[in-house]
Design goal:
The structure is a single chain. With 369 residues, the protein is of the alpha/beta class. Helices cover 44% and strands 12% of the residues. A six-stranded parallel β-sheet has the order 5-6-7-8-1-9. The protein is globular, with a radius of gyration of 20 Å. It binds ligand V47. The site of ligand V47 has 23 residues, from β5 and β6.
Length: 369
């Protein structure tokens, strides 16, 4: 349906979004002031309408989904981020580190229809370089055709230090062992102020962006994320999105943007609220509108909640991730979502949102039924 431009602009002006509706309809890039206005507007339905318009222009009625499994191979971590409920020291109760055999078995026993394994974990410098090569080989030997999407930039940074070799050599080794692409985690909020306060042991924005850029230039794809709902300001959220967009202009290596709503339970920040449904939808919509150069916006139901994830398909998201299973990071932080969704449930959710489901592989190639 064509949007009536003058009506929309009138409404946008009332909502404090002068000029933004026109830019969106023309396909003109939004600037930081526009991003902030989108975070501040009280006309949420208008925001959703604009984001859905862009989604439809880019993807029509298609909504992608994938059949995947998660393997969080260790919760040993030396970063001690305040937002994390997953991390343990090796001697803590509940600490674990999967052997390559256990990684193999977890994948061999998982859904035979899965096309992707998503492997991320904590960072523990005593884990040897060979361990990372072995878990990749184990994944591939369990299921040779599976796409191994593994490691955040934070894990890669540690693996490179452990290897004592240049990044490009490490990436070549990891690729040979089975690495197909990388994940989007570990970026958190790029604000140096928030980092110093809540995750001072983790790499800063410059290093995350530098590594992501190098990985793209080496031919790998990954995703990009923003962890929101801690103590960041709206300006800091817009700045984060701007930095992702700047890198994407240079490399085109991000496939999808995934806003990650902060889950406070069992963390040092458990006094903070879990972002409300409207804040979660707003984050999806602003991602779609601001990141004009990132092809896909992913609704990760584990953190959005299932009903908000389904609703977000009309707020700019065009991808519902995934069947998942065995996820620990959010579930340790109190996520009340199930451990797994069946393909049938994903199809039902997508069709219920009025979209046409298309199964994809990790690189967004449709999978023929
Ligand atoms: O880096 C950790 C975040 C990320 C909490 O690339 C938390 O396709 C909220 O990156 N509350 C890991 N968030 C997950 C991730 C991801 C998820 C789905 C798909 C993809 C992809 C990547 O989760 C971490 C951190 O930013 N996180 N703890 C928490 N309590």
């Amino acid at each position: 349906m064509e949007l009536a431009v003058s009506q929309l602009e009138e409404r946008a002006a009332r909502a404090g979004l002068e000029g933004i509706a026109a830019k969106v309809l023309e396909g003109t890039r939004l600037d930081a002031a526009d991003g902030l206005a989108l975070y501040q507007t009280s006309d949420l339905p208008l925001l959703g309408l604009l984001a859905d318009h862009v989604r439809e222009r880019m993807h029509g009625e298609t909504c992608f989904y994938n059949v995947n499994i998660h393997v969080n191979y260790t919760n040993w971590c030396n970063k001690f981020c305040s937002f994390c409920a997953f991390q343990r020291r090796p001697k803590d109760e509940g600490a674990y580190c999967m052997s390559p055999e256990q990684v193999h078995d977890a994948i061999a026993e998982a859904n035979p229809e899965a096309t992707e394994v998503h492997m991320v974990a904590g960072v523990w410098p005593a884990l040897e370089y060979d361990y990372f090569l072995e878990i990749l080989r184990a994944a591939k030997s369990a299921r040779p055709s599976i796409h191994v999407k593994a490691f955040t930039m934070v894990e890669i940074d540690q693996i490179v230090k452990t290897a004592g070799k240049p990044l490009l050599d490490v990436l070549a080794d990891l690729k040979e062992a089975g690495l197909d692409s990388l994940t989007g985690g570990g970026a958190e909020i790029f604000s140096e102020r928030v980092r110093q306060d809540l995750y001072p042991n983790k790499m800063g924005a410059e290093r995350w962006l530098e590594l992501a850029g190098e990985i793209h230039r080496a031919g790998f794809r990954n995703n990009c994320t923003m962890l929101y709902g801690m103590t960041e300001t709206l300006e800091e959220r817009v700045d984060h999105l701007g930095r992702l967009r700047d890198l994407q202009d240079k490399t085109s290596g991000f496939q999808a943007y995934i806003p990650l709503a902060f889950h406070p339970a069992n963390t040092k920040l458990d006094h903070l609220p879990y972002p409300s449904p409207d804040e979660r939808l707003r984050s999806i919509a602003i991602g779609r509108l601001f990141l004009d150069n990132v092809p896909h916006v992913k609704a990760y139901w584990v953190m959005l909640g299932i009903s908000v994830a389904q609703t977000s398909l009309a707020w700019g998201a065009n991808d519902l991730d995934g069947t998942v299973s065995q996820e620990r990071i959010y579930h340790d932080a109190g996520a009340e979502t199930p451990e797994i969704l069946s393909r049938e449930r994903l199809l039902h959710l997508i069709r219920g949102a009025g979209r046409v489901p298309v199964e994809r592989d990790t690189l967004y190639k449709p999978i023929e039924a």
